[in-house]
Amino acid sequence: MAELPATPLLDDLEKGPWPSFVTEIKNAALHKDSCKDLLGQLERSYREKIGHWKHGGIVGVLGYGGGVIGRYSDLPKEFPGIAHFHTLRINQPSGWFYTSKALRDICDLWEEHGSGLTNMHGSTGDIILLGTTTDELEPTFKALTDVGFDIGGSGSDVRTPSCCVGPARCEWACYDTLKVCYQLTMDYQDEIHRPMFPYKFKFKMSGCPNDCVASIARSDMSIIGTWRDDIQQDDAAVKEYADKGLNIQRDVVGNCPGQCMEWDGEKLTIDNDLCRRCMHCINAMPKALAPGKDRGATILLGSKAPIVEGALLSSVLIPFLKIDNEEDFKDLQALVEEIWEVWGEEGKNRERVGEFIQRVGMANFLEAIGLEPVAEMVAHPRENPYVFYNQGDDEEEDK
Amino acid sequence: MAEATKRVTDIGPPHYEKFLPEIIKKNYGTWKYHEVLKPGVMVHVGESGDKLFTVRAAGARLMSIYRIREIADLADKYSGGHLRFTSRHNIEFLLTDSANIEPLIAGLKEIGHPIGGIGNSISSIVHTQGWIHCHSAATDASGVVKAVMDEVFPHFEKMDLPGKLRIALACCLNMCGAVHCSDIAILGVHTRPPKTDFATVNKVCEIPNVVASCPTAAIRPVTADGNRTVEVIEEQCMFCANCFTVCPAMPMNDPDTDGISIWVGGKVSNARTEPQFSKLAIPFLPNNPPRWPEVTSAVSNLVELWAANARPFERMGEWIDRITWPRFFKMAGLEFHPEHIDDFKHAGLTYKRSMHLVR
Questions:
Q1: Tens of pLDDT, residues B44-56
Q2: pTM for the structure as a whole
Q3: CB A46 to CB B140 under 8 A?
Q4: How far is B331 from chain A (nearest CA, A)?
């Protein structure tokens, strides 16, 4: 058996109760020389407190511009096994559901063509196959498509969409997140594989305002489920929570942001007109309360991490949209494509759509995509009186 | 001559329905409620009366295929081969027979995967590649996460916290881990300007792109020794490393001055209060592998302080908003530094503009 390099610093991270990534790399290193060199280089990083990877590099599979991240060691002589050690992003199934067979298919092809190391999953949601050589990219891709998988996004393209568990296992899903995720992914295959935008564009689908995939913080277009009728309420079950010790007055009523609930010790009364659909009372009493039956989604736009012009949260674009059938879905796609048209044409290099809106102004952006402003789009109306009043009509009248 | 096989592209991911267990297909969209039975175990009950049991186990995120096969074996044995992953790298087994729960948990423990992370507990840490696979990392990711999770581990296995607590780590400001809305964010930072390689800038980069990449306009084109190159106005640089992202000749990594900052009080859920960004708590802690003791102790202190003082359901940021930031700094024993005051866009909106000050 090939010997593993000495890794006194990393060895310490095999102790303790949490699953150890070092153990994982060592397991793979028993089979793969590349992982032995990965261990060696990582130990050196731990000793020197600095990474040892070169700056990117353009590699990929034929006909795709995204989904493979070039990675080269800056110590190729010492660690030849990771001189090339590229990453492939593999588009995960909606909701990260698998069968053991599907996982084994991925494992088998990655045993043949790569390092045997993965991330389950990367931050955007893809399966990450961590480390292979340039020569193995095409064969890996062929093996992937043979078992029904495809590569995900990277660079200035549509990044692999991701969604929460949705109606598959959650009573709070206000629309079919898995279906919308799958449909957008399939309809925008070209945009995922062939970067054509000013910068990346992410979709994340959450079924309710709990937002389990952090859509409002991490996606250019956040599609978050909500409802517009009354909360479904089972009074007997509410009472049961109270009897079991839940302090409904303090912990449910007292936490309601709309102050729209009353509890008299027997019955909970909700003024649904003032309900903000925050989910708190439903989270606290899942057996007693549920989102209403008239369900749909709010479409928000523009969130991103700090680079370049600062972090943003998505803001409301469409307060309520039904996404039940083909027609509804077409409306959503028409909106997406209108946004891409404007941002694709006017956006600067490496400018996310949220930054673009900040630069040109929301009102101008809305006009460009043909959407009427509504009060739900702002936290509050403007405070400053430097208003660009529309003066177009005066000139007409003067003539 | 053999016909060339057609190259298959643009097929997208497999349809998710292929991977759903029968019980999910049957109850799709008609789940009635769920209950957490014990840490790491919950049941979803359908309108039909069907019960689906979920056992949530910790994953390392970085896993070998040999590990994944062991996990697949457990799924075959106890959950009909059905499992899923969560948005925080946890592994969830989907069971129909409650008699399989305990044997599955035992099997998971045997291969080193504790169960937990549901309800009022600490779930797995969303994180990035770090020194394992990234050129721009200011710290490692997996190592810090392992060290922190070992430290706060009792809160993964128990549901003994006032509310949910979400920790995330990104090893640089690119934030592949989008940590900016976490209860506790661990963020790798550079603290010195790029060490511009003047001679190679125009060979490996487009100078206008490098100039445009700087959010504070600290980079300007210059000519040196007859070469077109760039220079950095160092007092204007806030070490974001965006220039390095577009140009390898602007390296930022430094073993002595790279480190970790800690941010608190962010959330993405809309429950009770609106989503909010995390705010800076500790500007800099050193990189101290393999266990980053300064970081683990800082995170652990913040967790315990919040756990001891927050009201039921109150997230870190909600608690701090109630007690106010000066009180938080005092209680946490943290010093307030010039770095805590924002000086980027809209910084004025973060100044205290009222008399609402506590003792």
A1: 999 999 999 999 9
A2: 0.97
A3: yes
A4: 24
